[in-house]
Amino acid sequence: MANILDGKALAARLREELMTEAQAFIEATGHVPTIAMLRAGDDPALLSHARSVRRSFEKAGFGFQEHELPADCSQADLSAKLAELNADPHVHGILIQEPLPNHIDEDALILALDPRKDVDGVHPLNAGLLQQQRGRYHVSSTPLGGIAILDAYNIDVKGKRAVVIGRSNIVGKPMALLLLHRHATVTIAHSRTQNLAALCREADIVCAAVGRAGLVTRDFIKPGAVVIDFGINFVDGKLVGDVAFDEVAEVAGWITPVPGGTGPVTSVMLLRNTLNAAKWLLETSS
Ligand code: NDP
Question: I need a labelling partner for 50 at 20 to 30 A (CA). Which of 85, 222, 229, 269 fits?
């Protein structure tokens, strides 16, 4: 039976450490690290995500703002709001919630983000610097959380074969890069990948970032492999990951549960990114 990678317990520890660091920052600078979430429309999934970020930020004593424009707002309205948030010295992190309405040019908004406030790591400057491992940049909190879990359990990925299933800019690709930078041999799989189970079966580390309940089954997993499940799916009102947990846990060496795996660590990493953003802004503002 696999060892459980307990993200909930890790998140509690990391949160404590972060709050000590944040407290010292607040006392030294008078700045309370603050995030602003920007969305167009009131889609329930967007509201639910904002609620959970609000809870996490308020619990940590960080600042939280929500800015909702109507779903039929114009590109200019959203751009103006984003410019306002970019310029506001009391806002350190900005999350543009997706999906945006079809008539909105998402690329234009992302390019307009101040990269120092881009706590999701979606601006091409951050993504490019991550890819090249140069200078200072933000990395999306979900893959950062995945790496934090591996670190906490002293799982060394150097020289190991890793398969990341999913190639989004926010989870799959940055996770693959972070593993690569730690000297894993990485394959990125996606919806057109052939023989996915056989590919995964060769891996020492399998990361699932897809959004399909039960996609990763027992036959995907080499005995003893590490399984990191980023998936968030609701089946009959119950939260489940992309991994068929019960059967995979019988063969894997290590596995993140859902809930209680990558999710709670992601929340702490968003706090971490917001504190980093606040430091970055203060150090570079004249
Ligand atoms: P996206 O929908 O942007 O990307 C999903 C990826 O999965 C795509 O690359 C897609 O391939 C691939 N895919 C889809 N179907 C298959 C399949 N049958 N076989 C192999 N690959 C497939 O999702 P995100 O990256 O934003 O999120 C992924 C999951 O992670 C979701 O469940 C999301 O809710 C969750 N998530 C979890 C977080 C956490 O804290 N744990 C935070 C953020 C997201 P293609 O590119 O070819 O379309």
Answer: 229
Helix ranges restricted to H, 153-202: 172-181, 196-201
The span from the CA of 261 to the CA of 67, in Å, is 29
Q: Which of 210, 265, 270 to mutate to test the pocket of ligand 1 (most atoms within 8 A of CB)?
A: 210
Ligand 1 atom with the shortest distance to the CA of 145: 40
ipTM of predicted complex? 0.98
Q: Is 168 annotated as a binding residue?
A: yes
What size, in residues, is the chain? Answer: 286
Task: Count CA within 13 A, CB hemisphere, residue 49.
Answer: 17
Q: Nearest residue CA, atom 48 of ligand 1? A: 191
Domains of the chain (ranges plus CATH)? 30-115 (3.40.50.10860), 141-262 (3.40.50.720)
CA 211 – ligand 1 centroid, Å? 5
